């Protein structure tokens, strides 16, 4: 998991994806995109998209080495994602236009990871 190491001086640049809650640095989102959501969020090389689809405000960290076998991953709805570091709660929600696009064009059901009331919908 050394690819996920973040030096203490770089921790202020951590961001969490609002769709899958993976936690990476801003530079990694810019250079690689989201490992789970790049197909429909298109974060790679798009600073405006990174700002609107990721959040610097998140709580708790979960490190998953085998998401398919982890009960924590299942409980947090992370069992279909790649191994890595994930936030337990991500503040903020996707902009309406991005949400509409992923739900209509990509058939992805967006469930906010901020614990808001719309999660139960």
TrEMBL record:
It comes from the Eukaryota. Coiled coil: none annotated. One of its GO terms (cellular component) is chromosome, centromeric region. It is found in: Chromosome, Centromere; Nucleus. SUPFAM superfamilies: RNA polymerase subunits. CDD domains: Spt4 (cd07973). Keywords: Centromere, Nucleus, Transcription. GO terms for molecular function: RNA polymerase II complex binding; zinc ion binding. Residues 14-91 form the Spt4/RpoE2 zinc finger domain. InterPro entries: RPABC4/Spt4, Spt4, Spt4/RpoE2_Znf, Spt4_sf. GO terms for biological process: regulation of DNA-templated transcription; transcription elongation-coupled chromatin remodeling. Transmembrane segments: none annotated. It holds the Pfam family Spt4. The SPT4-SPT5 complex mediates both activation and inhibition of transcription elongation, and plays a role in pre-mRNA processing. This complex seems to be important for the stability of the RNA polymerase II elongation machinery on the chromatin template but not for the inherent ability of this machinery to translocate down the gene. Belongs to the SPT4 family. This is Transcription elongation factor SPT4. It comes from Chaetomidium leptoderma. The lineage of its organism: Eukaryota, Fungi, Dikarya, Ascomycota, Pezizomycotina.
């Amino acid at each position: 998991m050394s690819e996920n190491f973040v030096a203490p001086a770089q921790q202020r640049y951590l961001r969490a994806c609002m769709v899958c809650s993976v936690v990476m640095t801003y530079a990694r989102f810019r250079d690689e995109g989201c490992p789970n959501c790049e197909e429909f969020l298109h974060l790679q090389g798009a600073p405006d998209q990174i700002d609107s689809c990721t959040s610097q405000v998140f709580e708790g960290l979960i490190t998953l080495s085998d998401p398919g076998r982890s009960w924590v991953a299942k409980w947090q709805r992370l069992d279909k994602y790649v191994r890595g570091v994930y936030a337990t709660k991500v503040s903020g929600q996707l902009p309406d236009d991005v949400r509409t696009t992923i739900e209509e064009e990509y058939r992805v059901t967006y469930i906010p990871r901020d614990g808001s009331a719309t999660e139960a919908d």
